[in-house]
Design brief:
transmembrane helix, 18 strands, 8% strand, alpha+beta, four-stranded antiparallel beta sheet, five-stranded antiparallel beta sheet, elongated, 29 helices
């Protein structure tokens, strides 16, 4: 039954049951939420109407003030380019993680003063005279490399009297004559019998420098497809520049072709920061090209193909707004102490995509004014256009801002910094879109009215000039009006849409549940870089999956902790978190030496029964003797930090080395981390702790998923609350929120199908997906509530009015990111994939699913709704297309 005939008001939402607005003269009874919502909408619309009138009256002044304010912010808070190191693991580790304290202690007590460069040589069989000869040639060239007054001999780490270079060539002591004279049989014999390096006099395991090994029937190595050579040089600050320069020369050497070797891979300490930073900075060309593409698209879509109604200048103004927003966000974030990290290079693309969406909505609102409203003074037209568009972009901007501010509460520094930058950027974008851009729009309207050329504003067209008829047609609105909306609202089509939506949900929820959590640092390297190729080859030929680690003990009473130190060794050797046979304990070796030594001077200082030093002083004196003079103790000299080397000795710190077993996934990784930390704490309390570089990755993986769930849940709640308050209807808000939820699930599912995983980068993107998904559906939901009439006609009016800008905004977002598809940067390509999915599914749910849902169960309009869809306005000149959409202002019915 027609709600206008029975006048029945649904007591739950204040609207008639079929979605029509009540036409009764009786004042409807509003719920508390409706009163609040009505007040907010009224305040917003009034504020934006007044702002629009002000801008329409003084457009140049507002543009000038906006520019001055932007300049003052950038000057008062200048952006200092403090770039986080691309290889800095701490960017991805929770700020309150204990492993960061462990890392800090280890680096202060056992500072790394060693740098390295390494090459992997690959051939059908590297254990041949030809390959060994080629390797010696490379070695000989490397030791001749010079940088300033330094060469390899002055920069190298020495082992005894020789520079430390690890490879199979050390079995021949890098002697040219011996190496070149070695036969195939000699090589095979040497690698299968050598247990000690004749050059460095330490134990030698040939399997650590050979990959792709093939064994003969007797279990001996018969061939290998890869081998590596590693140069060790000093890493002190005093020689850092020279060391990096030498590394670059080694990299250049490794990238050359070498006769006798099929492929050479090279890597050095500097490689990661060089290549990771270069990947993102090298793709800045995509940013420039992306902006050009978007400018062209905006010009085409905002204006018409004639000399008067093109809007090239307005398109430029829109891009200027994005540029100003970038400046503000970088300055404010820098002022707050946040660093520019490896994720931040996508911000210009992100702000471009979001900003263009707002521009289409604002310009669309101006074009959608009724014929009567188009005749009003300029300031009135701008005011009325901004009245509805301002409220609409407020909803979308607030949801994006809140999503990122919630993301900024994360414990992960890289994610927190990016979210702060993005939130500041969207705030700036929102403010400048409603001031600077609207002012530019008013100026552009004045220009067209004055018949000034769109591209050359100094040229005025003659009064007889008339735009061609073809340019007056707007095909997208016409398509929506005459084909899309009528067909979408047919009942069979509605059923197909709902079934398709349900099917997509079922398929993608399976993919979302199976989305793997995985992150590798090498993903930040360009996929075509030499460093990425090296790490891939290293994983292929030399990765056992085992990770080197250690138990570090602080400045404690080692003499009095005999029981604890022995128990620690026993439990480590028996632990499932430690590879069997890899525990190398200085304390165990030391006490074994004390028990077996025949040195009378040592025996005199130990207890005859326990074989333990008589007192603390003797304990440290004998320990120092053990690691400096005894062959069994020399290898531990780097694992012990003596507080001094004279008078009364003591230990500032110590290390027990071991290896973690290979882990099959991230869950097993952080289980190993928790297990080893609990084991050590149970034996030694806070005196000792385990630490390894891989612990940083495991710690990050341990919290990423829970951080993602927390941020998504909080963002979703905030998005719903904002939609509820600003859309001002619980049912419409729930429908809009269902679009967000479905889009999120669809994106997560197809991320799995596309081979993406949960990591810090995709965490950012999934938070972004919440905000962007709202943009497409919130505009539809809000616009639907501003029309009177039955559900179908209100949906049709909504699609005709806002559908075009939503499509244009979504497509422009896609254009802003499309060039990233061919980038070599993991950050850029991942952003493209996720944003592509967000746009596709966001538009589907906003323009297909939501209109169908609203047409079936949508609530009634706002009580302040003053527009009604005009079905077929015959008097409208078909030649004019649908520039002024089919609606007219009506008296409020409340």
């Amino acid at each position: 039954m027609d709600g206008k005939k029975n006048g029945a008001i649904n007591s739950t939402n204040g609207h008639v049951s079929n979605g029509d607005i009540n036409s009764s003269k009786e004042e409807p009874k509003l719920s508390c939420l409706q009163k609040i919502s009505h007040k907010i909408i009224s305040v917003l619309e009034t504020a934006f109407y007044r702002l629009g009138r002000l801008i329409g009256t003084y457009p140049w002044r507002v543009m000038l003030i906006s520019t001055i304010v932007t300049g003052l912010i950038c000057i008062a808070a200048p952006f200092t380019f403090t770039e986080s190191a691309d290889g800095d693991d701490t960017l991805w580790v929770p700020v309150n993680a204990k492993v960061l304290d462990y890392k800090s202690w280890v680096e202060s007590v056992f500072p790394s003063t060693v740098r390295f460069g390494t090459m992997i040589f690959v051939s059908d069989n590297v254990l041949t005279p030809t390959v060994l000869s080629a390797m010696w040639t490379i070695y000989n060239s490397s030791i001749s490399l010079t940088t300033g007054a330094n060469n390899f001999s002055t920069l190298c780490i020495q082992s005894g009297s020789n520079c430390l270079v690890n490879s199979i060539l050390e079995l021949w002591s890098y002697d040219e004559t011996t190496i070149l004279a070695a036969s195939q049989a000699d090589i095979k014999t040497k690698i299968n019998t050598a247990t000690t390096s004749p050059m460095y006099f330490n134990s030698y395991d040939v399997t650590t420098v050979l990959g792709g090994k093939v064994y003969d029937g007797s279990g001996k190595i018969d061939s290998a497809t890869a081998t590596k050579m590693t140069w060790f040089i000093q890493g002190d600050d005093a020689v850092k520049d020279q060391a990096e320069a030498w590394e670059q020369q080694l990299i250049d050497l490794g990238q050359k072709e070498h006769s006798g070797i099929s492929t050479t891979y090279v890597f050095a300490i500097r490689s990661f920061s060089d290549e990771a930073g270069g990947a993102i900075r090298g793709d800045i060309a995509f940013l420039s090209a992306g902006y050009v593409i978007v400018i062209v698209y905006i010009t085409i879509m905002l204006g018409k193909f004639n000399c008067l109604e093109q809007r090239f200048g307005l398109a430029i103004a829109g891009v200027v707004v994005v540029g100003m927003s970038i400046g503000i966000c970088f300055s404010l974030a820098s002022l707050c102490g946040f660093e520019y990290g490896p994720l931040h290079s996508v911000l210009p693309f992100l702000l471009l995509g979001i900003g263009v969406d707002d521009m289409f909505v604002i310009v669309g609102a101006l074009k959608n004014l009724s014929d009567e409203q188009q005749k009003l003074p300029l300031n009135e037209r701008i005011g009325k256009a901004l009245r509805h568009s301002g409220a609409s972009i407020t909803v979308t901007s607030l949801t994006d801002i809140m999503a990122f501010f919630i993301g900024a509460t994360t414990l992960l520094p890289a994610l927190r910094s990016f979210c702060i930058f993005a939130a500041f950027g969207i705030i700036a974008l929102y403010g400048l879109s409603t001031t600077f851009f609207v002012s530019a729009m008013a100026v552009d309207v004045k220009r067209a009215a004055a018949r000034l050329n769109a591209c050359c504003c100094f040229y005025k067209h003659k009064p007889e000039y008339k735009p061609n008829n073809c340019s007056q047609k707007e095909y997208l609105p016409a398509f929506i009006l005459k084909f899309y909306a009528p067909n979408l609202l047919k009942f069979p089509v509605k059923i197909v849409v709902l079934v398709l939506t349900a099917g997509l949900f079922g398929l993608t929820i399976w993919g979302t549940v199976n989305l793997e959590q995985k992150f590798e640092e090498k993903w930040f390297l360009p996929s075509d870089s030499y460093a990425y190729d090296y790490l891939t080859a290293s994983d292929k030929y030399f990765s056992s999956g085992q990770e080197q680690a250690g138990v570090y003990c602080k400045n404690i009473d080692y003499f009095g902790k005999k029981t604890e130190m022995e128990s620690l060794y026993t439990q480590l050797t028996a632990s499932n978190y430690v590879v069997n046979g890899t525990v190398d304990s200085w304390f165990k070796s030391y006490t074994d030496w004390l028990s077996t030594t025949s040195d009378a001077s040592v025996i005199a200082q130990i207890d005859a029964t326990t074989k333990y030093p008589l007192d603390s002083t003797k304990f440290y004196d004998l320990l120092y003797q053990f690691v400096t003079t005894e062959s069994a103790g020399l290898r531990f000299s780097r694992n012990l930090k003596f507080s001094n080397t004279s008078s009364v000795l003591g230990l500032t710190g110590s290390k027990i080395s071991f290896y973690h077993p290979s882990v099959k996934d991230t869950v097993e990784g952080f289980n190993v981390l928790d297990g080893i930390q609990s084991l050590v704490a149970g034996v030694a309390g806070s005196d000792c702790f385990p630490y390894s570089q891989i612990h940083l990755t495991w710690e990050s993986n341990k919290v990423i998923r829970q951080e993602l769930y927390r941020n998504i849940a909080l963002a979703a709640v905030c998005v719903f609350i904002i939609c509820l308050v600003l859309i001002a209807n619980i049912w419409t808000s729930l429908m809009v929120f269902s679009c967000v939820a479905l889009t999120f699930v669809n994106v997560g599912g197809f991320m799995h199908f596309w081979g993406l995983t949960i990591d810090v980068v995709t965490c950012v993107q999934l938070i972004l997906a919440i905000g962007l998904a709202v943009d497409y559906s919130a505009h539809i939901g809000h616009c639907f509530m501003t029309f009177q009439g039955g559900r179908n006609e209100r949906v049709k009016a909504t699609l005709v009015e806002i559908g075009g800008p939503v499509i244009s905004g979504g497509f422009s977002t896609f254009l802003a990111f499309v060039l990233l598809a061919v980038s070599k940067s993991y950050v850029f390509t991942t952003f493209f994939k996720v944003l592509f999915l967000v746009v596709i599914f966001g538009l589907f749910h906003g323009l297909v699913y939501l209109p169908v849902l609203l047409s079936m169960i949508g609530p009634g309009a706002y009580f302040s709704a003053d527009r009604r869809y005009q079905h077929d306005k015959k008097e409208r000149d078909e030649e004019n297309g649908v520039d002024n959409y089919a609606m007219e202002k009506q008296a409020p019915t409340m």
